[in-house]
Automatic annotation (TrEMBL):
Pfam families: Glyco_hydro_106 (PF17132). This is Glycosyl hydrolase. It comes from Flavobacterium plantiphilum. SUPFAM superfamilies: Galactose-binding domain-like. InterPro entries: Galactose-bd-like_sf, Ulvan_degrading_GH. Residues 1-22 form the signal peptide.
């Protein structure tokens, strides 16, 4: 849509609402409706819960206008000086504000999620010591033969702020004997004589970690909850049962953040649960359990311990939590990573599994900036991301969400262009419900830069990137509208052998968490990881599967059927340990016609109970089914025999994900290489027309295709940093796609640029005339300190070159731009490469206007250089990316504006 520019300031003010509406009117037959769930959502930090109705409404309107589809409310610590405005969590005033938020959000077409508590992890004032996070405490005593032991057995008071509960005392004789002395206790006193031999006594306690809720809001402080106990969970939700009456179905989902329950590895009923689940009394084997020695028996018992913890977290907490939420017509959203359990099963226990990324990843895109001094290395490993999306896919959950952009750059230094490839990698690995991390509620009374959370990009109206943020948000919405359509279309299942991790000595550590920040400890370098990478790099769509989901698998027409869909094959990577029931089920599935592909065979069953007899059964099972379980020497040949056709487009360097929509295929293709990828790109579908959709601008058109036997070749040109969506069709539904090619070298635009500073601060610098484009920070001290928006205007003569279109290349933009040509709005350029097609030029004089917005960093630097304090927050105040003291005075001014030559290139449409 083009807008006649007669009064520039007015048009700038209303531009995005008009442009957003215009986007919705283009090619409605090709693009699905952009619903609130397909738009990005934001985690909304309520500092001190010091919210009020006018500012809540204003903030929600800001979200709606810029293209955010919903908010997830997380109350946290407050702002100094705002104490009189703090609202206690779940108080009548708080619930009034929550109800008002839901009401206004609904009127704006937004939805609301909430955390079941404040800060993280779950906990609060209603958590009694009995139900608080628990740890295993052990005291050890040596007793000589014939020695009388008469002591009050207590945990070391130096290590225990809260007295630990004594659960059991066991004696282990030097002759190998075992005695349970628990019934000998009188209270905590044991009076016992070692009659036969020397003994080692182990006393087991249920201690308390003492962990308090992190970043708690007013009214939310208290102990962290025991995450291995349904009784503790049931007690925890009592205040919510009362407070949320009337909210049933009005809140969309209840959120549970990443597992950061530190030091908890036990629950008071653990010993009973262990015996019920593992089939033997753990107390008999405490020396092996606590031994640091790398021994088979000790490792097997440790494996059983870890599996029991996983079972309790899943069955005593996560599943009951989802059941509780669903009973009130809420969905659940869970970050399972960091948990001490099988991530696939834990993610799948929620309605919406959620992953997260942390830090900044490298990309080869020319012009993509990743300044070392501003970033911390990221951990967005595609294999790790797929644990959450795989859980959603195999369990039939339509959405996989992500906490996105956490610590992407240092504060005030994240550009929209730096967000784009990071979010693309999420979507390429199955995430289709992006949550921004995050947006801080900041009332109008707060002085700039407003209230800020310590660890996020802060997507709100006080951050200068908000000016053009709708470009990023619309892009995400356009992609997600198709990535939420239909169903996942991965054809290969890959077995995840969790017991190979559980069964290791792990330095003698009893407790183990599957953290995203420690992938080297449990993921990298494993056969599972290597096979995943091999499959993905060769164009196979992969989902991971656990033992529990294999148990649910069925076979229909040669396909493996899980609750979430069907697969052509299941690959078993080289693994050391596999439960006997899993192997039995895999063999049974293969006998029924499923394609089960073994890269290697398990050597043993996991765990300790009756393991020797089970190993004999495993060996007999493998021996009697040699032809069925015979490991393959060529994995790709075996996949071809399962009628799997890889997407060989990956050989071009393109990344992809594919979905199925009523038998047609949707492809999301992204070019993160250093070069333009063009030519006829193969799709693993036969005899199809192909619709091209550009998520940056919603332009569509039917591609030129060549149809071969099992492949459709589609003509594409994707510049480095760009992406396209493709949809297969039986017949062409749109006008032909326009394939523009440059007919000459880029032509530099020369002349005097008029530079006018329009909005921002600390003050608007005087207008300037610029002949050579470079950072506006070099013009004056006022421009060096300025953060906001400025307008570049240039009069230039149209080159005497024939062209169907002209491509504008703004070069190095710091950081985002809107463009007008001859008074007509053309569009926005916020991502690398900063190019846009202008259309036709007028003969003679043309006028180009480019409105550029920089980052907030220079203004923050100026504030701190002048000694003005703005960091006024409780608890963790403001820190840098490495969690050190935040100090912007150390920064150098960040380049701003148009900083390199601007060019135009004549284009010709190859298809006329």
């Amino acid at each position: 849509m083009k807008i006649k520019l007669t009064y520039l300031p007015f048009v700038i003010g209303i531009l995005f609402s008009l442009n957003g509406a215009a986007q919705q009117n283009k090619s409605e037959t090709a693009w699905p409706e952009t619903k609130n769930v397909s738009k990005p959502w934001a985690r909304w930090w309520w500092m001190g819960s010091a919210v009020d109705k006018p500012n809540l409404k204003s903030s929600l309107i800001d979200f709606q206008k810029v293209g955010i589809g919903g908010v997830e409310i997380t109350p946290i610590y407050g702002v100094k000086g705002e104490e009189s405005n703090f609202i206690d969590y779940l108080s009548p005033k708080y619930m009034e504000m929550l109800g008002y938020t839901v009401k206004i959000a609904d009127s704006l077409g937004l939805q609301v999620d909430m955390v079941l508590g404040t800060g993280w992890p779950y906990g609060g004032p209603q958590v009694s010591l009995e139900n608080a996070a628990t740890k295993l405490v052990v005291e050890k005593y040596e007793v000589k033969k014939n020695e009388q032991f008469n002591k009050d057995i207590k945990a070391d008071p130096a290590q225990e702020k809260v007295p630990a509960q004594l659960l059991a005392v066991s004696a282990y004789g030097a002759d190998g004997s075992y005695l349970d002395l628990t019934n000998e206790l009188k209270g905590n006193v044991l009076n016992w004589k070692a009659k036969k031999t020397n003994y080692t006594l182990y006393a087991i306690f249920a201690g308390k970690t003492g962990q308090q809720v992190k970043r708690a809001a007013p009214g939310g402080k208290g102990y962290t909850l025991d995450h291995f106990s349904t009784e503790a969970l049931n007690a925890y939700v009592v205040p919510f049962d009362k407070a949320l009456v009337g909210f049933e179905g009005k809140l969309r989902a209840i959120f549970n953040d990443s597992y950061e329950v530190y030091g908890t590895d036990f629950t008071p009923l653990f010993l009973q649960e262990f015996e019920k689940r593992r089939g033997y009394d753990l107390k008999k084997y405490l020396p092996q359990l606590f031994s640091k020695e790398d021994s088979e028996i000790g490792n097997r018992i440790k494996s059983d311990y870890r599996e029991t913890i996983s079972d309790l977290l899943l069955n005593k907490f996560d599943l009951p939590w989802t059941k509780w939420a669903n009973s009130k017509n809420y969905k659940t959203k869970l970050q399972a990573h960091g948990s001490p359990g099988n991530l696939i099963d834990l993610y799948a226990s929620a309605d919406i599994p959620e992953c997260e990324t942390f830090g900044s990843m490298p990309y080869d895109i020319p012009g993509f900036r990743r300044e070392k001094e501003d970033i911390r290395d990221g951990d967005a490993d595609p294999v790790m991301l797929k644990f959450s999306s795989s859980a959603a896919h195999i369990a039939g959950k339509p959405l996989t969400s992500s906490e996105t952009f956490t610590w992407l750059r240092d504060h005030f230094k994240t550009a929209l262009s730096q967000c784009k490839p990071e979010v693309e990698d999420l979507m390429l690995n199955g995430i289709n419900h992006v949550f921004l991390h995050g947006s801080t509620y900041s009332p109008k009374r707060a002085e700039w830069p407003g209230w800020k959370f310590y660890a996020s990009v802060n997507f709100n109206a006080t951050n200068s990137i908000w000016e053009d943020a709708s470009g990023l948000f619309n892009y995400i919405a356009n992609c997600q509208s198709l990535l939420q359509a239909g169903k996942p279309d991965n054809e290969t299942l890959l077995y995840y052998p969790v017991y190979d991790t559980w069964g290791k000595n792990l330095g003698g550590n009893l407790f183990f968490q599957f953290k995203i920040h420690s992938l080297k400890e449990w993921l990298h370098g494993t056969p599972f990881y290597d096979t995943t990478k091999k499959l993905m790099e060769n164009g196979y769509g992969v989902d991971f599967v656990s033992d529990a989901f294999i148990a649910q698998a069925k076979v229909k027409d040669g396909m493996l059927v899980l609750p979430g869909g069907s697969y052509k094959s299941l690959v078993v990577p080289n693994c050391d340990k596999m439960p006997l029931p899993t192997l039995e089920k895999l063999i049974a599935l293969k006998k029924e016609g499923a394609h089960i592909i073994f890269e290697g065979l398990p050597k043993s069953v996991p765990g300790f109970n009756d393991y020797q007899a089970q190993n004999e059964k495993l060996e007999a099972l493998l021996s009697s089914n040699k032809t069925i379980v015979n490991p393959v020497s060529d994995l790709f040949k075996a996949l071809a025999e399962a009628n799997e056709q890889p997407e060989t487009l990956v050989t071009t360097g393109l990344k992809f994900i594919r979905r199925d929509l009523d038998g047609e295929k949707i492809y999301y293709l992204v070019n993160h290489t250093a070069k333009t990828i063009e030519g006829f790109i193969p799709l693993a579908v036969a005899n199809k027309e192909v619709l091209i959709l550009d998520p940056l601008n919603r332009k569509t058109g039917n591609a030129i295709v060549k149809k071969e036997r099992q492949t459709t070749l589609v003509k594409l040109r994707i510049e480095s940093g760009k992406s396209l969506l493709l949809k297969t069709e039986n017949t062409a539904s749109e006008k032909p796609w326009k394939y523009y090619e440059a007919t000459a070298e880029p032509i530099a635009l020369k002349g005097d640029w008029k530079l006018t500073f329009e909005k921002g601060g600390p003050a608007l610098p005087a207008p300037a005339k610029v002949t050579t484009l470079e950072s506006w920070t070099k013009i004056s001290p006022e421009t060096e300190a300025f953060s906001g928006t400025a307008l570049y205007t240039l009069q230039f003569d149209a080159p005497k070159v024939a062209a169907d279109n002209w491509q504008l290349n703004l070069g190095d933009v710091r950081e985002s731009a809107k463009i007008w040509l001859n008074g007509e709005y053309i569009g926005e350029a916020w991502s690398v490469p900063f190019t846009i097609n202008l259309g036709k030029l007028k003969k003679g004089k043309n006028e180009l206007k480019v409105q550029v917005t920089n980052l907030s960093a220079n203004r923050v630097r100026d504030m701190e250089m002048k000694g003005k304090e703005w960091k006024i927050f409780y608890e963790i105040n403001m820190v840098d990316k490495d969690y050190n003291k935040f100090d912007a005075t150390k920064w150098t001014p960040m380049p701003s504006g148009l900083t390199s030559p601007v060019t135009i290139t004549p284009l010709k449409n190859e298809v006329n």
